Amino acid sequence: MDSSHASSDPKENLPNIFIIGVDGGTFEIIDQGVKEGKLPTFKKLMEKGTYGKLESVIQPLTAPAWASFLTGQNPGKHGIFDFYIQRKESYERRPVNAGDIPTKTFYEILSDNKRKVCIINVPMTYPPKKVNGYVISGMLTPKGRRYAFPPNLQKKLYSLDYEIEIGEAYSGHNKESFVRNIEKLLKQRKKTLFYLIDKEEWDLLVCVFRGTDIISHAFWGNKDAILKEYKKIDEILKDLLQRIDENVILIVMSDHGFGQEKRVVHLNTWLAQQGLLNFISATKTSLKKLLFHHNFTPDRIWELVSKTRTLYKLVAKDLGTRNLMASHFFLSYSDVDWKKTLAYAFGSVGSWGLIYINKEGKTPQGTVKPGEECENLKLKLTNKLFQLRDTETGEKVVDKIYQKERIYSGKFVENAPDIIVKWKDGYITYPFFAGGGKIFTDSPQTRTGNHRMYGILFVHGSNVVENKIIKEARIIDLAPTILHIMKTPIPRDMDGRVLKEVFEKNSEYAKRKITYEEANKEKERIMKKIKRLKYRAH
Amino acid sequence: MKKIPINIPRDLYEEIKFRVKASEGEFRSVEEYVTFILREIVKEKEPRRVYTPEEEKAIKERLRNLGYL
Which of A143, A169, A214 has the CB atom closest to B58's CB atom? Predict the structure, then answer.
């Protein structure tokens, strides 16, 4: 890379910021790798920079965590609590996308301020925004669509064999091809990253590697397999450090940490047992319930299918058959009698449990009155959950329970789950209908790891304090910190703080006063008028 | 970026100039004010529903493969 710096206004002498996202990156693996001498670049980043745990958001899941990284906001403000959003006045849900984030991300703010940005593979960036630079969208990008901006970039990416995700699931007997595909993906991403680094000078470059997350889910019990993936990231960081000059501030971070997964809590089954979730009395649903209690559930069938290689190959690729089976034979939300249901679990499989109250006025067939009735139910549920014990070990399984109003702020708080359960380490939630009527089952052998609250943060470059451990850094702090470094006013609705302690006391970044964006009263007035104008035009 | 001049009525110019001054630095010139408004008006509306039903199914399937669903 050229030693002259990349800012469009060279007089300001601003640095270039490179961010490498290591999805699911955790110190449990890095510390082990550094100790064994397998991660020399991570060791160097520790010695020559500032590092520490990076607190994720509740719940620590890819979509909300990266949305908070991009906006510097808590999920109550950006509205992304999960991979899904419940459709308005419906019990249906749809996957989230970049258009669901209502505020400007930090890379858009920098782009608006004429900085050149290059965003590669960050989840929650589809559809790609039009920026002063490049965006290659990441996870949650549908196949066959335009995923890059500017459009001609996509043609170049074809020639680099660029792919967004691997299509294969880990079934327990495809380890070789599964790992090979993840390796292939990493190589393609690395090739693209270095091609783009060489191609232009960037004020901000962000590139996310997802393999560490995928491998950690599948092989948590096999630390050597995970370390292999981290070693590849270490090599990329080594190559990167060799190419970049002293004007670059390198940030290596993750969206959440990782830990062991052992047991599954079937939250809807528990709610059904408490009489809070009920099924319709139609014959078809009764038959499905019968099958469900005989362990005829998607996870069980998938486990059986996975055991037979030929059957797996047939079924894994036949999405139509799977969907047909799911709708005709397995219990699902369409079998729930909403008029007789007070609470239900929704969301993705993860280390947290999310319960929603079937509130009047919020859902089409709400049964619980907001206010006292709702609060009493929440209290009753919370007390019962604290008493919940694993049927096999007899141990209590709930670590903490959060009320949404206490942990989130912003206009989307009302969309957040009403009860947010943090299980003790090792437990995860199946929020749909699995487990054959049992509340607790063992985790499938194909998934041994799951997310934890604390990820990683390394900052390296000029004016960065060497060999320092940073405490209390959060994922929401990165956006305001980056804007501060780039001398760009921070929007007042960002929740994070500028991590000034990362920089030498006498450095400009530590001394410079933090500036916030002025309240844009006139712009807001104009926008309101334009909104009305556009509304009329449609 | 190359610019071209356009003419607007004098009274409108004066009105905007007044608003620019009242904005206390939010806008620095009449040109910036007018450009802001025009840009916001011609900007494409972000589509809220970006996935087709088939794509939603495919994304759900992908999340299922990753173990999230």
Answer: A143
Of B37, B55, B66, the CB nearest to A142: B55
Write b or e for each residue in A160-191: b if 16 or more Cβ atoms lie within 10 A of its Cβ, otherwise e: eebebbbeebbbbebeeebbebbbebbebbbe
Residues A324 and A247 reside in one and the same domain: no
Residue A55's domain is classified under what CATH number?
A: 3.40.720.10
Contact list, A83 vs chain B (CB under 8 Å): 63, 68-69
Distance, in Å, from the CA atom of A218 to the CA atom of A156, rounded to the nearest integer, reads 32
Burial (Cβ within 10 Å: 0-12, 13-18, ≥19) of residue A352: buried
Contacts of A446 in chain B (CB under 8 A): 67
Bridging pattern class, strands A263-266 and A440-442? antiparallel
Residue A435 DSSP code = G
Say whether B68 and A348 touch across the interface (CB within 8 A).
Answer: yes
Both tokens assigned to A52: 């520490």
What is the value of pTM for the model shown? 0.86
How far, in Å, CA of A6 to CA of A202, rounded? 6
Residue A518 located in a structural domain: no
What is the token pair recorded at A315? Answer: 């079924």
CB contact under 8 A, B68 and A145: no
Shared-domain flag, residues A295 and A436:
yes
B1 in contact with chain A, both atoms CB, cutoff 8 A: no
Q: How far is A169 from chain B (nearest CA, A)?
A: 5
A411 and A429 assigned to the same domain: yes
**A95 with B60: Cβ contact below 8 A:** yes
User: What is the pLDDT tens value at each position of chain A, 538 positions in all?
Assistant: 443 444 444 446 789 999 999 999 999 999 999 999 999 999 999 999 999 999 999 999 999 999 999 999 999 999 999 999 888 778 888 999 999 998 999 999 999 999 999 999 999 999 999 999 999 999 999 988 899 999 999 999 988 889 998 877 888 888 999 999 999 999 999 999 999 999 999 999 999 999 999 999 999 989 999 999 999 999 999 999 999 888 899 999 999 999 999 999 999 999 999 999 999 887 777 777 777 777 766 666 666 666 666 666 655 555 455 555 555 667 788 889 999 999 999 888 888 999 999 999 888 999 999 999 999 999 999 999 999 999 999 999 999 999 999 999 998 999 999 999 999 999 999 877 877 788 999 998 888 999 999 999 999 998 999 999 999 999 999 999 999 999 999 999 999 999 999 999 999 999 999 999 876 777 778 888 877 776 665 4
